[in-house]
Amino acid sequence: MAAARARQNGLWQRVKPGLKTAVFYGFVLLFVFAMVAPFLWMFISSISPQYELVAKPPHWFPEEPTLHRYRALLLGPEPGQMMPMAADRFLNALGNSLIVSISTTIICLITGTLAAYPFARMRIPGDHYFLLGILAAQMLPVIVIIIPLSLVMQRLELIDTYRGLILLYAGFLLPTVIWIMYGYLQTIPRELEDAAMIDGCTRFEAILRVILPLAGPGLVAVGAFTFLSAWNEFFMALIFTASETKTITVTVTEFSTQFGIDFGLMATGGVIGSIPPLLLALLLQRYLVQGLTAGALKG
Amino acid sequence: MTGARRKELQLAVALFLPAFLIMAVVTIYPLLRSFSISLRQWDLMRPELGQPFVGLDNYRFILTDPLFWDSVRVTAVFVVLAVSLEICLGLAIALMLNRPFHGRTAVRLMALLPWAVPSVVNGIMWKWILNPSYGALNGLLLQLGLIDQYVIWLGEPRMALLMVVWADVWKETSFIMLLFLAALQTIPHDLYEAATVDGAGTVGKFRHVTIPLIRPTLFVAVALRTIWALKSFDLIYTLTAGGPSNGTAVLGYYTYLKSFVALQMGRGAAAAYIMTFVVLVVVYFYQRAIYRGVEY
Q1: Rounded Cα gap, residues B111 and A43, in angstroms
Q2: For residue A299, what pLDDT is reported?
Q3: What is the pTM of this model?
Q4: Closest CA–CA distance from residue A243 to any residue of chain B (Å)
Q5: Domain B39-293: which topology?
């Protein structure tokens, strides 16, 4: 009797760690499924032919996968294919998003890093208030100032122009860029710069030759963040763009025909529109998490 | 003032100026102008009335508008539910993943997916998944036998609000998780060993080691998420357009409707300023959290 129980106990002791591991991996799988499944379903929908898209119960794996929606969006519709108006402009919108996001990133990196430098390194009278203002500006919802903003945009004739959208995005993203770079620059030892200045560099030269190369990882993180934010921005693009500069986020919401919303095409647009930010996030994940954590936590 | 000091200040101004000019045009000037608009009656549908100064009338109108209070209620429910779910889930998952296991790097990479997807695409995606006739959720739940007929997920205000929360949680939790994971990894292992020696159990270690050490991250995550949730617009615009019967019209959406659908600029600006005030209160706490965080 006792021997049997001991044997059973021994068995339990051997099974227990295995069971624990199994439960653990079960949770991991559940988490991964929850993260990936919705997006995966959007992708599957984008390659399902129309009849499978409206099948009941849903065809989890399409029997006749097709790329015709991708072809239609990127290369133009085939003769006779019904397309919502907005779909014709898809490639154009993709280009607009690229132009605006890249320009915004470049402008933010240059002006933002320069602006962060004095706060990280020099004695500025009242710098505390400036930093507080910058912190608060990061939180400002666009909707709060959208009315006067549209007056400014009209006055400066910037509605539906690249310049206008880039200016807006830069204005809204700069506080965050300055804040993160301010935190990052503080982690670079001051001595390196002092040494360069003793060697005869002016302060500005020291910034260019010593600080900028060392700030590389911070710049990568901030650059990725800026690009992503500009690419994903919707509200300002909705209000301030029309036929010329409409971006991808606005365009994908407009895929409807007289027969209703074309979900297959929307899913396709959604997948394509997510590729650039996804690639960027995956390639730069190390910098992103580090940089943004540092930026969010540094005071 | 010495010459060197003057030169330093000149350089500081020169370095700050380009960024300042951009921010001045885009945020500072409009913020001031917005205030002056909020004190005027300005109806784009009736331009013949001009823009007379009306004092605080717009604020009075907004604060007595039942729709405004509905949107405050919707916002409060949305923010509290979404943020608490995201923080709790994010922390729980981070605790779970904070150990070596096969495929850890891959899981972390995948955690960036929801975060990188544009909010608009998130809205479209869930609108399709929740579609009452062809949606994947109905199909899945029916196949699993959890429902016996298709549910109209976005057809009823309360359910629709829950679905908006759900979509927001899907998008935001994983980055919160990554933030917590980064914080957990900075905790020295000795502390846990010392706690074990002192006889602390799993719960004790969590309460007395983990929580105090990740408190700065916790504060920052709560404050940042709260502020972002208060600003939510894109997701709601694409998923529910504020409906049904204003059941998901958060403050931002209410302001949008006043300004761009009703075209009442003065009232829109007043609503916006009231919203700014709410955000500022949260920012105040956020800023305190940050300065407290530095003490570590």
Answers
A1: 17
A2: 35
A3: 0.88
A4: 19
A5: MetI-like fold (1.10.3720)
